[in-house]
Design goal:
The protein contains 14 helices and 14 strands. It has 381 residues and is of the alpha/beta class. The longest helix is centred in the first third of the chain and has 19 residues.
């Protein structure tokens, strides 16, 4: 049996993409799968053996020591193929490739060149500098790895990459599609946002929207939320009955998010402010919102408009404009037939176009191509 090892310093062991989608799909396809990740204990879940490394005590610890911990575990596993998920691991993955000769896959989850510019813990100049360093390191080492990308537009930087997109797992998709669409009672307005909360992801805009809603309205946010972000949102909207925040700085279990989709909602939100990092992202939450039958209200970026308005699943509003978002919400409340049409259109699109199974097949095909190279092979020039 071909043994493969997934490596991460940053993502939790049960990360949606790393574990739920990729590792489980490979285990079902007959691979022996080891996941080296920050975790409390060694265990095997859904056919994936988790080999834990200690969680980093700080960002500096992760940058300076965590990569070496993961590298040592990777060498010890003697896998036939390695698949890593963080740019922190680029030098260690290159060393792994040189030392073992095994094929190595670099899974690009983010556009790190732009995303690091907007990290709240980095000054703007330092974020840009670090982003350029990561971008240069990616380009300098790319010939050593097979690259897969989580977003289509990353192909501009990696033209030969294989797209493995973040569509919902088929089991989750079926579960969401089968559950009946529930709406709030009467004229009550309940809006949902799922995923990590930050200013770059529209947290402050949604807090402002919460305070603009009628008295029976509320915004519920479910996902990781750092204390400073929570405080900033509370300053915008100090009324907890209007703005409900579920999740601390830690990872929120994915099953909790899936369970939230069963509740009655007026619409689902993605009100990101404009920035180069988000304009072309295809958010996984869009596909989940669609499958759950939730009308979507999101920022008006061309890629998002193609996903949301052209499928009929929702409406786009000016980025960062809480007033425009409020107007879109009230339009849906006043026109329930339009909301129902969006719900049906979103579910039809999710069923026809946005299933992880298509991506799982592509991933397994890629591994099949690389499996014959599992024996030590020369490093490309």
């Amino acid at each position: 049996m071909t043994k493969v090892a997934h490596l991460t310093t940053l993502h939790p062991a049960f990360d949606n993409r790393v574990f739920l989608r990729e590792c489980r799909s490979l285990a079902r396809a007959g691979y022996e799968v080891v996941l080296v990740a920050p975790h409390e204990e060694a265990e095997t879940v859904d056919g994936v053996r988790i080999r834990p490394v200690p969680k980093s005590r700080s960002r500096i610890d992760r940058l300076l020591r965590q990569g070496f911990r993961v590298y040592r575990c990777a060498v010890d596993e003697q896998a036939d193929l390695y698949h890593f998920h963080d740019p922190d691991l680029l030098p260690w993955a290159l060393l792994l490739r040189l030392r073992t000769g095994r094929p190595v896959i670099y899974d690009v989850h983010e556009d790190y060149v732009t995303s690091l510019t907007y990290k709240p813990y980095l000054p703007l100049w330092l974020g840009r500098l670090v982003g350029r360093i990561y971008g240069g390191l990616e380009q300098a080492t790319r010939a050593a790895f097979k690259i897969v990308i989580a977003e289509r537009y990353y192909a501009r930087r990696f033209p030969d990459a294989v797209p493995i997109l973040n569509y919902p797992d088929q089991g989750v998709l079926d579960e969401l599609l089968e559950q009946p669409r529930r709406r709030p009672d009467g004229d009550q307005i309940r809006l949902l946002y799922t995923g990590s909360a930050s200013a770059m992801r529209g947290a402050l805009v949604m807090a402002e929207l919460a305070c603009k809603l009628p008295e029976d309205g509320s915004v519920t946010m479910i996902g990781a939320c750092a204390p400073e972000v929570r405080q900033a949102m509370r300053e915008r909207c100090p009324r907890p009955e209007r703005l409900r925040i579920e999740g601390d700085a830690a990872h929120v279990p994915y099953r909790r998010i899936v369970a939230a989709y069963r509740e009655p909602w007026t619409a689902a939100l993605a009100l990101f402010p404009d920035s180069p990092h988000v304009r072309e992202k295809e958010l996984t939450k869009f596909f989940e919102y669609m499958a759950a039958g939730l009308p979507i209200i999101c920022s008006d970026f061309p890629v998002w408009r193609d996903l949301v308005e052209l499928t009929g699943a929702g409406v786009c509003v000016a980025p960062g404009d809480a007033g425009a978002a409020l107007a879109a919400v009230m339009d849906l409340v006043r026109d329930p037939e339009r909301a129902r049409a969006m719900s049906l259109a979103g579910r039809n699109a999710a069923r026809a176009r946005f299933s992880w199974e298509s991506q799982a097949r592509r991933l397994v095909e890629l591994y099949g191509e690389l499996a014959p190279l599992a024996r030590p092979s020369p490093l490309p020039a």
